[in-house]
Amino acid sequence: MLSREENAYLTRTGPDTPMGAFMRRFWMPFMLSQEIAEPDGPPVRVRLLGEDLLAFRDSEGRAALVDRYCPHRRVSLFFGRNEECGIRCVYHGWKFDADGNCVDMPSEPADSNFKDKVKLKSYPVREKAGILWAYMGPAETMGDLPDLEWMAVPDDHRYVSRWFQHSNFAQAVEGEIDSAHVSFLHRKIENDAANKAALTGAYFSGDTAPKWKVVESDFGMTLGARRRVENGGYYWRMNQWFYPFYTMIAPVPSEATTTRMWVPVDDEHVNIICVSYRTDKPVSDDERHRWQNGLNSHAAGIPGTHTPAANESNNYNIDRILQKNETYTGIVGIRAQDAAMTESPGPIVDRSLEHLGTSDTAIIKMRRLLIDGARALERGEEPAAAEDGSLYRVRSYSVVIDTEEDFDERPDIVEAMQVGAASVQAAE
Length: 428
Fold this sequence. Notes:
The protein is an alpha+beta fold. 21% of the residues lie in helices and 24% in strands. The chain has helices at residues 4-11, 18-23, 169-176, 182-185, 193-197, 201-204, 285-292, 320-325, 334-343, 361-378, 384-387, 411-416, 421-424, and strands at residues 27-32, 44-48, 51-57, 63-67, 81-82, 87-88, 95-96, 102-104, 122-123, 125-128, 131-135, 158-165, 211-217, 220-228, 234-242, 246-249, 257-266, 269-277, 397-401. The strands form four sheets. Strands 12, 13, 14, 15, 16, 17, 18 and 19 form an eight-stranded antiparallel beta sheet that branches. A four-stranded antiparallel beta sheet has the order 2-3-4-9, with no helix packed on it. β10 and β11 (131-135) form a beta hairpin.
């Protein structure tokens, strides 16, 4: 468990908090490129690490992320005019470029140099693989984007979506790295052929108390969960948690791999960007249909919003008849099932009331790594993963072996989880 003080340290990510300072050492994925696809198109409100911001694409196609409020009278630039390489406040006509420079101040005398003394807060933005990323930390510590495998695959080999969740970021991540819950939350009532086909149910439904092996590294940790299988041998499932909020889940054989980014909106909300991808072939129409409808890796959203259709306001559309006769939860869709569990305790859980067991090994370790990382930064020690994107050249993996060796003792498994530098740089 965490004390209330430690939990506050972990979950508070605003500008003046230790965890907020730690987060700001990393590039922050904040939205999809397609959301501001049009140069001089409408600006979009963004809230990130407790800050109210505005995203827009200027006349030259450059993506920008700036303070939402004009430095003149603090009115919202959301109502501004995106024109001629800048966002212009409609209150008095002050105009700012993508770097926050005031380039026009028509409400002041023509010979005034006041505009040269006014600056709109802006953050550097990079665009890669259909995602927009912002760097919100000190300029002198700006490092690399994470060099994740999906960034290099062709556009038609990946599917990207995003949605919001009403909880702090750490609470949301905890549901993702908890491999033990799969044996319960996502199962069918009967261990029939359909259940065995879903999420390799033959492995998850039999051994419900996996053995854990957590291996720390500079990128974060690899989370190995071992289960006994019916015909002998062991099923190993290796997922990753990357600093500061990325997860990669081992795919079902022949299925796509999924990475999620659990980006803090503020202390009580998280922006989830999800990428499902293949290295072998384009995403199929069937996969796209399932993801769009929230049947497994992604959440089906309310059109025109980033709110999942199944959410806390409608009890995640729980069907008690379905729960009684067919599925463990009566909630349709893995994402909705997970959200029900991680939102239902409230946006910030009192972790001092928990009673953690061996199945919570990965959760305990993730909390400790984040807290230790933020405390190290307070001592002046920069996080290695924020500086070196190549540390993220790792993939999730699952395999059945016939020995009792731990996964990290098997060179073939360790090699299978490595991503070559050449492959991730192919899209540059």
